[in-house]
Design a protein that fits this description.
The protein is α/β, with parallel strands linked by helices and 309 residues long. It has nine helices and 14 strands. It has a six-stranded parallel sheet with strand order 3-2-1-4-5-6, sandwiched between helices. A three-stranded antiparallel sheet has the order 7-10-11. Strands 12-13-14 form a three-stranded antiparallel sheet. The longest helix has 22 residues. Bound molecules: nicotinamide-adenine-dinucleotide (NAD). The site of nicotinamide-adenine-dinucleotide (NAD) has 32 residues, from helix 1 and helix 3.
């Protein structure tokens, strides 16, 4: 399988490493408007590949070389500086997506291609990419709240002393400040979170849940403060999404795709079945009244940001 990555900054490079380590790609093409950076990344990754999978990695300086790709991952664009929100990147990164998508679409097979969007503000970028590409919504897939959900599962796992793999709990809505936690549907193994807490005599009162929400919302800001950017978490999410697509696993992931039509259309994260044809169905979770209100608010914010560009 041939996979292309556009944008080889901190995120694109970490994504390229994670994708190479899945062993799913036979060929990986790297493009960045900074050709020197892309060539250096290809060189470094090529050396690493000697120790793992046999994969051909090439840096290219034009989009013709992405021909034959089945998946194109877009990780180009400005990232947040300390104190900036994802929405602060709206204008700069809309220009980046406007630049990239027509070039990608001129060189791929529209019947098969899947676009994976990583650039922030994620949900609006998915909307822009889907509109420009004219692809079915199911095949323009934003990593959405996969990363936020992973952050939630990590924190809960420590609190409950179980593996994060046993926690089915989702962050939904915007990959951004208005995201919300769907506590109402959260499960540990096969039992609801409240039942699990009762059985294990672990207390998870409203104040603790508020603290967890705060930590999930602020995780990126804290990492950016300490590290300048975030890259490992999102790279793990992209590799997992890729495995799910390529192996047609049909797992449920909180990815962001465009739902609805016309001025009602909005991209945000909900639990969706993901396989070889992309994000093919949405599994609407149970929510309480406050969660429904929070999700609607999140959708309105995303749509308003989209309408502002
Ligand atoms: P970075 O500044 O390190 O790298 C960005 C790269 O994009 C640079 O190499 C730049 O040359 C390239 N680029 C810019 N415009 C381009 C264009 N028109 N064509 C080709 N290449 C172009 O930034 P980063 O830390 O790698 O972050 C990249 C994006 O990923 C940001 O928008 C960031 O907010 C986002 N991000 C998303 C998530 C998520 O969960 N979805 C997580 C972390 C970061």
């Amino acid at each position: 399988m041939k996979i292309s990555i556009i944008g080889l900054g901190s995120v694109g490079s970490a994504v390229a490493t994670a994708v190479a380590n899945t062993g799913l790609a036979r060929e990986m093409v790297l493009f960045d408007r900074d050709g020197v950076r892309a060539r250096a990344a290809a060189e470094d990754l090529g050396h690493a590949a000697v120790f793992s999978y046999d994969i051909k990695i090439t840096a290219v300086n034009n989009y013709r070389a992405i021909r034959g790709s089945e998946i194109v991952i877009i990780a180009a664009g400005a990232n947040q500086r300390p104190g900036e929100t994802r929405t602060d990147l709206l204008r700069a990164n809309t220009a980046v997506i406007n630049d990239i998508i027509p070039r990608v679409m001129a060189n791929v097979d529209p019947k098969n291609i899947k676009l994976v969007i990583v650039t922030n503000p994620l949900d609006v970028m998915v909307m822009v990419a889907q509109k420009l590409s004219k692809l079915p919504a199911s095949r323009v897939i934003g990593t959405g709240t996969m990363l936020d959900s992973a952050r939630l599962r990590t924190i809960l796992a420590r609190q409950l002393s179980v593996s994060p793999q046993s926690i089915n709990a989702y962050v939904l809505g915007e990959h951004g400040d208005s995201s919300m936690i769907n506590w109402h549907s959260a499960c540990v193994g096969s039992v609801g979170l409240n039942s699990f807490c009762r059985q294990t005599k672990i207390s998870l009162p409203a104040t603790t849940r508020k603290t967890i929400e705060h930590r999930v919302h602020n995780a990126a800001y804290e990492i950016i403060q300490g590290r300048g950017a975030t890259w490992d978490g999102i790279a793990g999410a992209v590799a997992d999404l890729l495995r799910c697509i390529v192996n047609d696993e049909r797992r449920i992931l909180t990815v962001s795709i465009v739902d609805g039509v016309g001025d009602k259309a909005v991209a945000m994260s909900l639990p969706r079945i993901v396989g070889i044809d992309g994000a093919v169905a949405t599994v609407h979770p149970k929510m309480d009244g406050a969660e429904i209100t929070a999700l609607r608010r999140s959708a309105r914010i995303i749509r308003k940001n989209y309408d502002s560009i």
